[in-house]
Sequence to fold (188 residues):
Amino acid sequence: MGATELILIAIGLAMDAFAVSVGKGLTVDKVTPRHAISAGVWFGGFQALMPIVGYMLGHSFQHVVSSIDHWIAFALLLLIGLNMIRETLWADDKESHDSDFGPRKMFVMAVATSIDALTIGITLAFLNVNIWLAAAVIGLITFALSAMGVILGSRFGAKFGSKAGILGGVVLIALGVKILLEHLGVIA
Fold:
């Protein structure tokens, strides 16, 4: 997996956190740097941690499924992408419009938005990706997009939230198709 694919996966994973951050930004009368940094640290931290956990799980049973790992990677990315799109189109936005930036609330949202990253970690184990580099890229991109989401939410409204979730889902599905086609020898 090249740098471009890794960055696209990171952006795709960050879209849930970005959408929630936009929603958080909508709820605050005056956004401060503390709000943006809080969202970035919580969401970026969990998006970096979860692929490592998933990688360890995936690596432990990789030898059993190595002949079909590309199909598993495709299926996981497809399911994650479709679920992201489904949640975006049919989700109840009331959850994301809560102005509480306290640890308890942010922890729950960070875990909820990073479950997909756990699954990606399993996929990265099958692809023998450097998990430390991948986790750092995923975490940093999520940090930046989440912090920016809070600021954009306070300035521009809810328009970005739904589009971000759909875009993230499409990116993950496209990467799953690319991985499958590469392993089947259809594309180089």
Observations:
- The first helix runs from residue 3 to 27.
- Residues 3-183 form one domain.
